[in-house]
Amino acid sequence: MEAPDEPGAAVTTATSPRDLAHPARDEIRLEGVLHALSDPMRLRVVRELAATGAEVSCSSIELPVTKSTTTHHFRVLREAGVIRQTYRGTAKMNGLRRDALDALFPGLLDTVLSAAEGQAARLNAP
Amino acid sequence: MEAPDEPGAAVTTATSPRDLAHPARDEIRLEGVLHALSDPMRLRVVRELAATGAEVSCSSIELPVTKSTTTHHFRVLREAGVIRQTYRGTAKMNGLRRDALDALFPGLLDTVLSAAEGQAARLNAP
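Structure tokens for the assembled complex are given below, as produced in the milestone run.
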């Protein structure tokens, strides 16, 4: 789960090469979140993070795309405010920013997750 | 409001130059819907259609973009299955495919509309 981020907290700018830039809660925009969720691979990442309910490393989520494309997808999710990425030693860990998303857009994340589950069941896809 | 479209109805292919192509209900994908909703102008169109609750002509929704960009946005919404576009005489009329969206992705449209309202209020934007 994410570290608490208060509205207006200045967490936008990376302060060291190992701190990744994240939008503060009040900088997160609906359009950016919807865009981040509009890709099948990114939606899969979000479903896995939601199912796990904990931080996971990038490498523990297997996507049928190249490593650099995977990195790109995680970056889009981070920059939109959907996930928080933090280094733990050499691993980059990822967690859903559920508190921020639920506060800004009540019900949105759960509705999208349910819709994704329903669609996967209809299409007989993972 | 949209004409009823039954699951599996073969309405994908345009049958005359004045019939516009729409995905059948079971061809509508969550990712495409989220992408269609991820643009501020398209989100504004959807909010206006939802508020009106009726078919409206393209020209009655004023967007601060060129006519060709407006046409593009309506096409993205139609091809994603979010709106139905039909000719009435010389006017192209637009209606939300609420029945289809609510059946496929329960609660999604209303949650996005609420999130957009909330964000507009926070940002003091239209």
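Residues 1-11 of chain A have pLDDT under 50 and may be disordered. Chain A touches chain B at residues 26, 29-32, 34-35, 37-40, 43, 104-108, 111-112, 114-116, 118-119, 122 (CB under 8 Å). Further analysis is deferred to the final report.
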